[in-house]
Amino acid sequence: MNAVQTYRYLAPSGVSNAGMALQTCGGPAANPRFFSGFLTTPQAAAAGLLAVAEVARTRYFQPVSPASLDPVVTGSADRLRFESFSGCCGVYARLDALPAGLDGEILAHGTTNVDVNPPLREALARVAGLDPLHLSVGPDDLTVSTMDGAVVEKKVPLPSRWLRGFAEVHVLSAAFEPRAEIPATEAAALLRRLPGARDRSVLWMVPSGRTLRPTSRPVPGAVCLAGAGRLAALRGLLRFAKVLRVYGPTVRAGSAPVASTWELDTGALRLSLTLSPEPYRGFSGEGAALTSLAGDDVTDDAELVSALLSWDPAIDVDALATAAGIPAARVRAALAQLGTAGRVGFDVSEAAYFHRVLPYDAARADRDNPRLVGARTLVEAGAVELDGDAAATVRSGDETYRVRRLPDGGFTCTCPWWAKYRGGRGPCKHALAVSMTVRVPASPVRSEAEDA
After folding, report:
1. 181 and 141 both lie in a single domain
2. SWIM-type domain: which residues (predicted)?
């Protein structure tokens, strides 16, 4: 189901002799102005913005006509973040303009959409030369004072799965660790050797000297690369990058496909692509955020932590724990739940959460997660019968299932859902119902890699 959201832009985004003007809509103010200044690496910044916009208008699995979803931009204390999802929701792109890449002033903190239209994409593709490029994110004061002038209003179908994807990606990526770092020259050669856009295979990449080598089977230390053609958006920034870093969860022999993040770093900019475990899978259906939505205690902690968040580019968990008066583990669980409402994201490069407020209704959480609703129905019906601390029986309709709690806090179940996905799409409704009943703390969802 789509949510149609009206975007009001005071004028189209564009590039002129005065610089590049990216028009915003909504957020902490009507058409906020987040930044005004120069980009210290203009060509690289143009390439990065084009990459984020390209992902937003691409459907990698079963390609169709380009979409035109406007990327999300967040202004924080010292940087700008541009984010988007692909039309199929299987690729998450983010461009971080770091302090070294900005020569100007962050004028406001907040999150909104930014208009990246076809004329702007064409203009960005023509950016050249060594002169710094001036960037104004949001309308300037003169334009604000003439609201009766050129107002661009678009009704954009904002898919609910695109919104759910933000919640899923931050939970998954919080479990990632650095797996490889290779020079940009080696990265360019690696991308040339990888299969093309039509390839649907799942590869496993293993560090080998200064590069990565593919293998058909998972081994310890390997990184999953599902649908290598989905890395195409990195190519435009390769000539400006210093290194390519790769992140992923722990895998072992026999692991099922998992998500991974591929990040180019220029020193002033970071462009990352996070790929879903398989080309046909969108992040919106992974179910990784369900556990974070299940507990009443976590909800209360999330409300407390939310009131203490600031627009720092990296959230200090220990400082939040001190301010909130709760253990750091509970703060992390609260941050995981806040991510399901779009209030925080996760930066794998800094291994830290960051503050963000997406422009959508957090009350959609229940409507977007039928398993969560089903679990609450089971609890309210008294369908969960605990058998000590490690097992439970759940009556669901005419069927009865056994749920077992594992030492790491995860669950297994005898239901068909678990048999099919083995935790790779998040917990089933029976496991969620048990976790609600025993009020266990929110814990990372067991991945297919761990269950294999």
Report:
1. no
2. 401-439
CA distance 128 to 78: 26
Structural domain boundaries enclosing 145: 2-158
Looking at the structure, tell me whether residues 12 and 81 fall in a common domain.
yes
- Whether residue 82 is found in the same domain as residue 59: yes
Structure tokens at 370: 């039928």
Tokens of 332: 């992390």
Where would I find the beta strands (DSSP E) of 138-268?
152-159, 177-183, 202-208, 211-215, 223-226, 243-248, 260-265
pTM: 0.80
Q: How many Å is the maximal CA-CA distance in the chain?
A: 72
Measured CA to CA, the distance from residue 115 to residue 21 in angstroms comes to: 10
pLDDT, one tens digit per residue, over 232-266 is 999 999 999 999 999 999 998 888 899 999 999 99
Determine how β-strand 211-215 pairs with β-strand 202-208. Answer: antiparallel
- Do 389 and 269 fall within a single domain? no
Four-point Cα dihedral 416, 369, 95, 303, nearest 10: -130
Beta bridge partners of 92: 85, 274
20: in domain = yes
Helix axes 429-438, 370-380, angle to 10 degrees: 50
> Tens of pLDDT along 354-369?
988 765 454 555 666 7
What is the full DSSP assignment across 270-326?
Answer: EEEEEE-SSTT--GGGS-TTHHHHS-HHHHHHHHHHHHH----SS--HHHHHHHHTS
- pLDDT value of residue 31: 59
